[in-house]
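Q: My labmate handed me this sequence with no annotations at all. I'd like to see what the chain might look like in three dimensions before we decide whether it's worth expressing. Could you predict it?
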Amino acid sequence: MYASLTPVPLRSRAAAIVCVSSDSSDLHRVLSQLEALPLHEIVLVLSQPTDGIFALARSRKNTLIVHLPDSVEPDVGRALGAKLTDADTLLFVDGKQATDANVLARFLWECDGRMDIALNDISARMGLFKQRGGIEQFHEFLNSSLNRQDLRANSMSVLPIAMSRHALDTLGSAVLAVPVKAHAIAILNKLRIGAGGSAGSGTLKEQSKSKEHLKKAAGDHVEALKEAMTTRGSRLQFVDTIRNRSVLGDER
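A: Here is what I predict for the chain of 252 residues:
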């Protein structure tokens, strides 16, 4: 059953970007929710799809299908999808987990002239800092380091998110393959970033328990911080009020 139509007063064209792998068993529901929205197109990046997933993708209207015979990281697939659309607003969703169209509509609406990047607000579901997963702590540390404490643990790496054409042109599609690096660059470029809504019932704790996910997240955040230090200096513009660096001729 398809979701009922969800009207959103958009002034410009919008597209959804979905990276689909062979285990995207919820794809039908994902597409049904997207088809309830006034989207110009849905870009489906199929990574090693099964025959069933490929047939399902082809059966839907208004879709641009990219077939990749090899397995790729979902973030890489979404970066490719972003490059292939000329829409003014881009909505990035998870191909494995459907989000209600009414929730997604808010993300689109926020990026239709108000925000450059609308993030999934997971902060409302979090407890104390020590009770959070490691990846959530990484996100909040990065935001605080870049003087955007208001974003808390919200990050471009947590779907769904929406993005304006201005944001995509500023960042470039390639950097979306490393979402936290794109997140840092977006802050450094003073893009308008805020919460577009709250989707999903969980947090990132399950991923944080995986050593593989945690190691990858740590590496991505180091890359993001290196990018920030290249732009703002090694102290990220934070003043050292303790050490008398002038003694050594170092005023940083």
